[in-house]
Model the fold of this input.
Amino acid sequence: MSPILIISCIGLYFGGLLLIAYLTSKNTTAESYFSGNHSSPWYAVAFGMIGDSLSGVTYISVPGKVGTAHFSYLQLVLGYFVGYFIISKILLPIYYKMNLVSIYSYLQDRFGKHTQKTGAFFFILSRILGASGRLYLAAGVIQFFVFDRIQSVHIPFWLSVSVILVLMLVYTYKGGIKTLVWTDTFQSLFLVLGVVLSIGVIMSKMDISFTQSVKTIYQSPLSETFFWDWHKSNFFFKEFIGGIFIAVAMTGLDQNMMQKNLSCKSLGEAQKNIFWFSIVMVIVNVFFLSLGVLLYQYYAFAGIDIPTNLATGQIISDKVFPNLALGFLGMFAGLIFIIGLTAATFSSADSVLTTLTTSTYIDMLEYDKNTVLSEKEKSKRRTLIHIGFAVIMWLVIIVFDVLNQRAIIDTILMLAGYTYGPLLGLFTIGLFTKLNLKDAIVPVICVIAPILTYLIANYIVTPYCNYQIGNELIIINAGITIIGLVLVKKRN
Done:
């Protein structure tokens, strides 16, 4: 497939994003940047959140991992569904009652400024590492299959990443949430189309009907969903309960996921948004997993070798989908894959710039409370923060590339997951107890808790108990945080 053709399609795609940004960023104010003037349609927010929840790594990895993990990922997704219900009924009413822009303002109201800044810090750290790591992996796929194959001119990785981030800045720096609600809806549409059309292409290549494909997926050993060995990380209750807490922490306690929800017209519309989003998320993930089964069936059908590590013989799951889409399924399938990957990557990364700006502006620097600066000066500083985070993400991505170690990226993404435990612990104490905390000591406890969690998980539980910790890690992390905070509570 011609790299020029792929670049042209990506260019048209970004043209659509820039047009949306132009139409939605007129007469932008601080209110529209941070909260979309509380006029975002719930259905647009709900559909746009699909792209926020599914990164480029998910787009590549979930279908690929079906070969080794089967449908076990669906156990986690079912837990998400329950977690979203908790967000809708417990967290959103509190956020709307307090009329929050940054959800970490709740922590200041409940415990104090040090606690608020601690929550914001963990969010900022997690999102910088997570978004940069995901963008690095997805940009690496585009670099390998597109830019590295343009023989007439060498386009280095740092330049292609720079262009990607500049394009993100162009359509996000001014409109903020008001723009992102609609650009994410646009990108979620292409992400879903990418999965659905990829399934259609494989069905066509294998000459099977929709009914036949459903039957073959259902009968395939790869569609095994529920696992009951409690020693292993894919044990049903580990995945399901872990999914509940992950959804609550990584969606309900995450500024990036909540800011668009708080831009709806009312609490009722925000709850309606979460309800329909949770249903659509389950359906979309079923499509991803079904695509995975069809990918492996097509490898067998066409006699194509599955990408494997020559040293270990293990399947390289992250290459299963791109290898087939860009090498064997034809030009149309390749373009679908690239556009779907682009949509998944940018919809989960572009909003991060806006929400990192929001948390820094409100929680860390408190410019919203500054009565000395003019609105023009505040707007200027908001833009500088927005650009600054784009530069930081660029630097982190380049460091990943220089190290050139995929294992390091996996470690960074895993460490980012540890940061949600303290947030879950803080909000749990705030919402379900009447305890008062020693505000100044909270940051210390929240730093120690993830370290203890890591040591316990890797040097006690796994080697001595013959037990694999999976998604319940966030519960352990939150539990240690809660114990530490209770020990340093204020005496009434």
Summary: Residues 205 and 451 are 50 Å apart (CA to CA). The chain has a mean pLDDT of 86. The first helix runs from residue 3 to 24.
